[in-house]
C-alpha cells in the first residue's frame, strides 16, 4: 500500500469524536503560512551563501511535512467552529506556531537549547521582545530577519485575535467599541475574512511608512526593514545588543520610532473606521485620550526628575525620556540607555508602567488602558453609592452603558493578572532569583513588555543567564498574557471538557 493510500485509509475517531478535526485543519494551514515565512530568510541566506541556509531549509521541510499530514487526516472536516473549539484553536495555534518557529534557532548558528529557542520564539510571536540571545551584532541576516518576521506576523495576529476572536469568546475589551465591527462576535466566520484583510492593509501601510522613514533617516535598508517590523508590532527585537541604543545619537530616528510605537499602541478598529467612514475619530475615543494623557503626565514627571538630577540639555533629556517611556508603556521594549541608573524614582515609575500597556485592539500587551479606566469608573460609582445609598448611577464608557458582563470580565482579568504575578514571582524566587528580578520578570512577561528591572534582565541585560526552568515558566507566562489569561485558564477547568 502506498503512503498516500495508507493516509487516506486512516480512521478519524480521535479527531472527530473530540471535535478537533476542524481545529487541526486550521493548524495545518497555519503551518503552511509559517513555512512560507521561513522561506523569506531562506532566500536571503541563499543569496548570501550563509551556513544558516541548511537550518532554514530543514525547518521548512519539517513544517511542510507536518502540515501535509494534518491536511490529509482532517480531510472532509466540518469547518463550522463552536465556541469550545474556538478556545482550543486560539491556544493551540499560538503553542504550535511558537514550537515550529523555534526550529531555525535550534538548528541554526545560534545553536540554542530547546528551552532557549522556545523562549525566543514565544517572545517573538507574542511580540514581547525579551531575548536570551547574545552577540546579536554578529548573527546572520537570516536569523535577524526571522526574529523580525516573527514579531511582525505575531503583531497582526494579536490584532485579529483581539478584534475578531476574543469578543466572540467573551474575553478582552473590544466589545466596548461602538464601531461597525461590534457585531463581529456574532458573525465570526463571514466577517473575519474582511476584518483580517482591512487590518492587514492598515498594518502593511504602517510598516511600509516605517521602513521608508527609517531608511531616509540613516538606517541601512536591512536594519530599516527589521526595525520597522518590530516597531509597528511593538515587539522590540533589535539587530544589536545595544537595542535601539545603536542609533542613540540620531535624534530624528528616535522620534520617528516614537511615532511608530504609538501608532501600534492605538486601537486598529479605529483605523478601520477612518478608512471606511473617512472620518478622524481616534481622538474622540475615551481610551485613546486616556492613553495620551497618561503618557504626557509620565513624561513630564520623568523629565522634571531628569532635569533636576542631570546635566544634559532639555532636548536631549526630552528625547531620551520620551523614547524610553513610550517604549515601556507600549510594551515595545526598545532601550537607548539603562534606566536602572536613573535613580529610585525612575525605577519605581518604570515598574508601574510595566503593568499598563496600550489600547485594547492594538499590538501592545499589558493590562490595557481601558481596564484602568473602567476600574476608576467603578470606584467613583461605589463612592457615590456610599454617599447616596438609594441613588442610581449609570456607568458609561465611550458614551455607552457598561454592562455587567464587561465589568465581570475586567474584575476577573485584573484579579487573575495580579494573582499570576504573585504565583510566578514566588516560583521564580524559589529558583534563586532576587525579588526585584523575579517580580519585574513576572510583570513584564505577563504584560509582554520585554525588559524588566535589575542588572540581569534590565534594558542593559537579557534572560540568557536565567535557569532553564525559569525560561519555561516565563514562556508560559508570555503566552498566558498574550491570550488574556482567561482564554488559557478556561481550558484547565473540568466544566469545559464536559460534553
What does the model show?
It is a single chain. This protein has 499 residues and is an all-alpha fold. The protein has a domain at 406-497. It contains 21 helices and 2 strands. The protein has helices spanning 3-8, 13-17, 21-48, 53-73, 83-101, 103-107, 114-125, 141-165, 188-216, 221-232, 251-265, 268-277, 286-309, 314-329, 344-356, 369-387, 404-430, 435-446, 468-482, 486-489, 494-497; strands spanning 396-397, 400-401. A two-stranded antiparallel sheet has the order 1-2. A hairpin with a 2-residue loop joins strand 1 (396-397) and strand 2. Helix 3 packs parallel to helix 5 (83-101), helix 8 runs parallel beside helix 10 (221-232) and helix 11 runs parallel beside helix 14 (314-329). The longest helix is centred in the middle third of the chain and has 29 residues, at 188-216. The protein starts with a helix and ends with a helix. The model is unreliable at 10-18 and 177-190 (pLDDT under 50).
Amino acid at each position: 500500500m502506498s503512503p498516500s493510500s495508507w493516509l487516506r485509509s486512516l480512521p478519524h475517531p480521535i479527531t472527530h469524536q473530540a471535535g478537533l478535526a476542524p481545529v487541526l485543519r486550521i493548524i495545518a494551514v497555519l503551518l503552511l503560512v509559517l513555512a512560507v515565512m521561513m522561506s523569506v530568510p531562506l532566500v536571503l541566506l541563499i543569496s548570501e551563501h550563509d551556513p544558516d541556509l541548511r537550518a532554514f531549509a530543514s525547518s521548512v521541510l519539517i513544517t511542510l511535512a507536518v502540515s501535509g499530514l494534518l491536511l490529509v487526516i482532517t480531510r472532509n472536516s466540518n469547518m463550522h467552529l463552536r465556541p469550545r473549539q474556538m478556545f482550543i484553536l486560539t491556544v493551540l495555534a499560538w503553542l504550535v506556531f511558537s514550537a515550529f518557529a523555534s526550529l531555525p534557532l535550534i538548528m541554526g548558528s545560534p545553536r540554542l537549547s530547546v528551552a532557549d529557542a522556545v523562549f525566543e520564539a514565544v517572545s517573538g510571536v507574542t511580540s514581547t521582545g525579551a531575548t536570551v540571545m547574545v552577540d546579536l551584532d554578529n548573527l546572520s541576516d537570516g536569523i535577524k530577519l526571522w526574529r523580525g518576521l516573527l514579531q511582525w506576523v505575531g503583531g497582526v495576529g494579536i490584532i485579529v485575535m483581539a478584534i475578531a476572536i476574543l469578543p466572540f469568546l467573551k474575553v478582552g475589551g473590544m466589545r466596548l467599541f461602538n464601531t461597525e465591527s461590534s457585531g463581529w462576535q456574532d458573525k465570526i466566520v463571514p466577517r473575519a475574512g474582511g476584518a483580517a484583510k482591512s487590518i492587514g492593509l492598515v498594518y502593511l501601510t504602517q510598516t511600509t511608512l516605517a521602513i521608508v522613514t527609517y531608511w531616509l533617516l540613516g538606517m541601512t535598508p536591512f536594519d530599516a526593514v527589521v526595525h520597522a517590523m518590530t516597531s509597528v508590532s511593538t515587539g522590540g527585537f533589535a539587530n544589536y545588543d545595544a537595542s535601539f541604543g545603536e542609533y542613540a545619537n540620531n535624534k530624528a530616528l528616535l522620534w520617528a520610532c516614537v511615532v511608530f510605537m504609538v501608532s501600534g499602541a492605538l486601537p486598529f478598529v479605529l483605523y478601520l473606521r477612518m478608512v471606511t467612514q473617512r472620518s478622524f475619530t481616534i481622538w474622540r475615543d475615551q481610551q485613546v485620550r486616556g492613553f495620551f494623557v497618561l503618557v504626557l503626565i509620565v513624561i513630564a514627571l520623568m523629565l522634571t526628575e531628569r532635569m533636576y538630577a542631570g546635566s544634559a540639555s532639555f532636548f536631549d533629556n526630552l528625547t531620551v525620556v520620551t523614547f524610553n517611556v513610550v517604549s515601556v508603556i507600549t510594551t515595545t521594549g526598545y532601550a537607548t540607555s539603562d534606566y536602572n541608573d536613573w535613580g529610585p524614582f525612575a525605577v519605581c515609575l518604570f515598574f508601574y508602567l510595566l503593568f499598563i500597556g496600550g489600547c485594547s485592539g492594538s499590538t501592545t500587551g499589558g493590562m490595557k488602558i481601558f481596564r484602568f479606566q473602567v476600574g476608576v469608573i467603578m470606584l467613583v460609582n461605589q463612592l457615590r453609592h456610599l454617599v447616596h445609598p438609594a441613588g442610581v448611577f449609570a456607568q458609561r464608557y465611550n458614551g455607552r452603558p457598561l454592562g455587567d458582563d464587561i465589568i465581570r470580565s475586567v474584575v476577573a482579568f485584573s484579579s487573575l493578572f495580579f494573582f499570576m504575578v504573585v504565583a510566578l514571582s514566588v516560583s521564580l524566587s524559589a529558583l534563586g532569583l532576587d525579588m526585584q528580578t523575579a517580580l519585574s520578570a513576572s510583570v513584564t512577561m505577563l504584560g509582554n513588555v520585554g525588559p524588566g528591572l535589575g542588572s540581569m534582565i534590565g534594558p542593559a541585560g537579557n534572560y540568557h543567564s536565567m535557569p532553564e526552568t525559569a525560561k519555561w515558566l516565563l514562556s508560559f507566562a508570555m503566552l498566558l498574557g498574550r491570550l488574556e489569561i482567561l482564554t488559557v485558564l478556561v481550558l484547565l477547568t473540568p466544566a469545559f471538557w464536559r460534553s
